[in-house]
Specification:
Distance between the termini: 57 Å
Number of strands: 20
Shape: elongated
Strand content: 15-25%
Number of helices: 13
């Protein structure tokens, strides 16, 4: 049952890698503008700002409670911040509860300017430029609530669990229910019975059920008007005073909606993205940076995945996922080559084109232009099939560049891995080897 649920959850929450991801504090500010219940908080760039923010939050909260704490959170685009550590000083965790403004200042100084490493970031980590100082909510109960695109059904799915505050994929599936629906054009088209069902699932009192309904209407409204792919509230808390409050939230937006959501995309913190992905986006390239040593240029996502699998099978490691699409121009090819040429991890490049709409000769012209203008020294293995492949072969022969050509994908993957190994051995022996001309 657990495995079945995890598979179902992943399909609901399959978010495109290029979707816009906002910082937690940015999402909190957006949600507040819709009247959603969000704890008092402030984003801080320095430890002194964190001190002042914590001092005010503790002072304000003390008027309502006999006790008051704050939570200080590293604003880094990664999950598992609480279980991470900072590379430079070994400081554990990007999320801490503190009781005094002095502690907030001390903890902020250990986070700001340092690199947070989590399971999701890998060894490179991501730099913490901001911390979010927020009032700690003392809760009777923690619940989970999300709205996500359901690509399998072509609609939306609301996922709710009475047990929140933990990784939903690891929680007991007996507490989790999903509520699929057709994609509405506006929030008024949602069946209001769904709100009642979730309130019953959460075992809420009538006044709390009314709060939940207002929260869900606002969340779905945000989802629809913002072209979101995921809104996740974890936890949705029930305070000691019996009120619902959003304690932590995740908000992802489909990058295809950038032309409609310019204000939201203007909030994006590009420093949290890999420079190669930022550069690729300028040219409309579907690029995802990986940790390997074989650069990949492929047309079609499925073919790209198969190409990367073959590289792994032959003891190599892909350095990227790069889909140039079916209508790649020579400008886009040159841009892709430039990114891989600047990537110090890339030792060899495998180009795999199965041309239908794309043309093999256009791809090769782009490669020749890139080799000429960039002065590239990294070897290129070409696997070309389809439209204008014979013309492409002639261009390769006339170019003067030693691009290695084959029509067999398995052979191409083997050669790319071998080329990278040769260059690695030569570099270790301090030998200068040029495999491109």
């Amino acid at each position: 049952m657990q495995k079945v649920f995890r598979s179902m959850f992943r399909s609901f929450h399959q978010v495109p890698r290029y979707g816009l991801v906002l910082h937690e504090y940015q999402t909190a500010e957006l949600f507040k503008s819709y009247g959603l219940p969000i704890p008092q908080g402030r984003v801080c760039k320095t430890s002194d700002e964190a001190f002042r923010a914590a001092l005010k939050i503790i002072s304000d909260a003390a008027d309502r409670n006999s006790f008051a704490d704050v939570v200080i959170k590293a604003q880094v685009h990664t999950g598992g911040r609480g279980k991470g550590h900072f590379k430079e000083n070994g400081f554990n965790s990007g999320v801490h509860i503190v009781q005094t403004a002095e502690d907030a200042k001390e903890y902020a100084s250990k986070m700001l300017g340092n690199t947070l490493i989590t399971k999701q970031t890998g060894a490179l980590g991501k730099k913490c430029e901001y911390v979010y100082v927020v009032e700690r909510s003392f809760l009777r109960k923690e619940m989970y609530l999300s709205v996500a695109l359901d690509r399998e059904r072509g609609g939306l799915t609301i996922i709710a669990s009475e047990k929140g505050g933990v990784n939903i994929e690891e929680s007991d599936p007996t507490h989790i229910k999903s509520y699929p629906m057709e994609l509405p054009t506006n929030v008024d088209e949602i069946d209001p019975l769904i709100y009642d069902k979730i309130a019953i699932q959460f075992r809420l009192l009538p006044n709390q059920a009314e709060q939940l309904k207002k929260i869900m209407i606002s969340l779905i409204d945000i989802f629809l008007t913002s072209d979101a792919s995921l809104i996740e509230i974890n936890p949705l808390g029930l305070t000691l005073h019996g009120d619902l409050i959003i304690c932590d939230q995740k908000f992802n937006i489909d990058d295809n909606a950038e032309f409609r959501q310019s204000n939201l995309f203007g909030m994006e913190d590009l420093r949290q993205k890999d420079w190669k992905e930022v550069e690729a986006q300028k040219y409309g390239l579907n690029y995802i940076a990986l940790d390997g040593n074989i650069g990949c240029m492929v047309n079609g996502a499925g073919l790209a995945m198969a190409t990367m699998d073959l590289i792994k099978q032959h003891d190599g490691a892909p350095a990227n996922f790069l889909d140039v699409g079916g209508k790649a121009t020579d400008q886009e090819i040159v841009a892709a080559l430039k990114i891989m040429d600047r990537d110090p991890k890339v030792e060899a490049i495998l180009v795999n084109i199965f041309a239908g709409i794309a043309r093999c000769d256009v791809i090769v012209l782009g490669l020749i232009k890139g080799l000429t203008t960039l002065g590239m020294k990294k070897p290129i293995v070409l696997r070309l099939k389809g439209t204008k492949v014979e013309e492409a072969k002639e261009l390769i022969q006339e170019s003067g560049f030693n691009m290695i050509f084959t029509e067999d994908l398995d052979e191409a993957a083997k050669k790319a891995v071998r080329m990278s190994a040769i260059l690695r051995l030569a570099r270790e022996a301090n030998l200068n080897v040029n495999l491109t001309s």
